[in-house]
Amino acid sequence: MLGHISFGVSDLARTTAFYDATMTALGYGRVVTRPDSVGYGLPGTENDRLLLILKPDAITPPGAGFHLAFVASSREAVDRFHAAALRFGGADEGAPGPRPHYGPSYYAAFVRDPDGYKLEAKHPPPEPEQQKLLPHSGANAGAGGGAGVGVRSASDP
To answer: N or C: which terminus of the chain carries fewer CB neighbours within 10 A?
Structure first.
């Protein structure tokens, strides 16, 4: 449903390090690099799905009820995303693990990025007809080839 989403950020170098690590863990890559922004999407394209733009004013992430969910192709990809987020300045909002209240095979982790945006990595991937929108597993992605974007309700951790 979403073509892309963009966020304002306060420190582009810090943001780039964080998202390079977390998006790589899920199989995405940096596809746009400009003096004031970076964008992430399917490797080998110029089509960013997430654009992060340096802003001079204070950054105020959306409040309770909003977060951005990335689809992971495996539980291991969720684990790698969470570890990368913490290693590059993110804050833990929910360690990797089963979330049976979302579904019998739902596995996820929650973090906040350095500007305070709440993020989730979740597995399993979407239904087969939606998987054509995701990056394919490859040598660089390990077992974590797929990633997509979604938004969840206010009752999430």
So the answer is: N
Nearest-angstrom CA–CA distance, 109 and 51: 22
The domain limits of the chain are 5-56+64-151
The DSSP code for 57 is: S
Q: How far apart are CA 66 and CA 156, in angstroms?
A: 9
Closest by CA position to 27, among listed 65, 66, 84, 68: 84
Task: Say what the alpha-carbon torsion angle 89, 110, 4, 39 is, to the nearest 10 degrees.
Answer: 20
pLDDT of residue 1: 72
Ramachandran angles phi, psi of 155, nearest 5° = -85, 0
pLDDT tens track for 71-84: 998 999 999 999 99
Task: State how far the Cα of 109 lies from the Cα of 83, in Å rounded to an integer.
Answer: 10
Class of the CATH-defined domain 5-56+64-151:
alpha beta
